[in-house]
Specification:
Largest sheet: 5 strands, mixed
Strand order of the largest sheet: 1-5-4-3-2
Mean pLDDT: 92
Structural class: mainly beta
Strand content: 35-45%
Radius of gyration: 20 Å
Distance between the termini: 41 Å
CATH architecture: 5 Propeller
CATH topology: Tachylectin-2, Chain A
Shape: globular
CATH class: Mainly Beta
Helix content: under 10%
Amino acid sequence: MKSLRTAAVLAAALVALLPATAHADTSHPDPLPITGQQIIHDPTVARLKSGGYVAYSTGGVIGARLSDDMRHWKDAGNAFAEPPTWWYEYNDTGDPWAPDLSYRDGRYWLYYAVSSWGTNHSAIGVATSATGLPGTWTDHGKAFSSETTDQWNAIDPALIRSGGKLWMSFGSYWTGIRMVELDPVTGKAVPGATVHHLATRPDAPYAVEGPYIVKHGRHYYLFASHDACCSGVNSTYKIKVGRSTSVTGPYVDSTGKPLLEGGGDLLLKGHGRFIGPGGQSVFKNKGEDWLAYHYYDAADNGTPKLGLNRLSWKPDGWPSLR
């Protein structure tokens, strides 16, 4: 044990003599430098038809940020002026989580979760807007819900269209990531629809959540956050990915390990000041794919901030970040 302690001391001394940049993890790129209002959690980002960008997030009554160039962001209040009354069925403060923003059929669609920490008495709501801007949303109530008798947790929604159908992935802890078909007219779950199982981990508490699915080539790619968020610099969040030729799975990683058995290729983990990246989503910007997520800034007391990285695709089809 003494020799191990001596080796550790020598190693620490050598690290201290290295240049300040030597600790950087070159396998994981830093996020795009941004300015202005950077504080955010569980971001969903879109380039608006009217020009510019909007980001919605956990916090407030679905917190909103606006940008003209994706580099400088300003606070834009909230999606809603006040919580719809039905939210209070799920928590005392009317506090929504983890929104998802998409555009189809001439309208913007905003999905979000309402729940309380540590319970799967949860619901996913849906709202629409002609412009996608904060203050313009009309709420349409519950799209899907879960109860304590269910084996899944109806939070962290994300939409994808496939095969002429509309699908919503969701899930957090419990038995992991699930998927349900939505009625494209109402935006709500098809009555009696099958709840598909996409990903989990072998051991309790099954720490995988925040799914987001992207189609690239002939594959669907499932991005998910693993481990623990929401603890500042002590957060252990990381982003993993698997793929399938069918939107409902089965999803596997590059070694062939099923995501239903805890598989997943590591896409992004904490490095340097950028701790616990997760709560991710993917959006298009001028024909390019971008990953949006939050991280906890170790240089700013663990404040959650917006991370943006260009998402590129390797010759074998797997994603990487720039």
